[in-house]
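[09:14] KT: can someone run the structure on this one? pasting the chain below
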Amino acid sequence: MNNFKKLAIITGHRVGLGQALARHYLAAGWQVLGLSRRLWAPTPGLQQVALDLADSGELAAWLQSAVWQQALAGASEVLLLNNAATVEPNALVGKQDADAIVRALALNIAAPLLLSNALLADAPVGCLKTIVHISSGAGRHAYAGWAVYGATKAALDQHAAVLAAENHPNLRVGSIAPGVVDTDMQAAIRSSDVAVFPLRGRFDELHRQDLLQSPVATAAQMAAMIAAADFGQTVCRDVREP
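[09:31] RB: done, structure tokens below
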């Protein structure tokens, strides 16, 4: 992946919004580095690494590898899209699975923070860097049953705000809520036990009324926001904002 100008690093690129973002940037001529447990078939312009991003030790070790260093070498612009996340456990506090809590903290918080830290440490000197966390309205409003998911997304908003306050050179940063997108995550929400996740009916109704946003349209909206000259002036954003 040497001798290129623009690199987009996308976590959870295999399905849903991550796949739509990867396809968008590939079509726009970017090189894409996709990080996910499962991979696409070989695709021009796409380098992939099979990683369990919920295994913080595995990710931290990989970020010390030659593969990571070689991926960044020669880039004049790098975009990190921290997309991979889990919505589980969808349950009231006191009814949550302990392993699901630990996995959510690792995947939703630790992985984006590790990747952001490594990018700032290892990007070529003078490289323009953009870090985008995929946030959620659940991190900005209180929803019963989403104590874990909401807390992890609120953490990303705060991390982005602190990054911006640190005034790193050649860095733009934002945390974007993508709205309610028609992905496997939504299917998981609709399969939740309503007895422990009171919000399930709301998402069932959005699905019945065909009110979910498409991943492709959402990816295009997000890419337009990121490409705008004023991106980063307001850290916490939403694709549904006026």
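[09:33] KT: thanks! The chain has one domain: 6-180+215-238.
[09:34] RB: yep, looked fine to me
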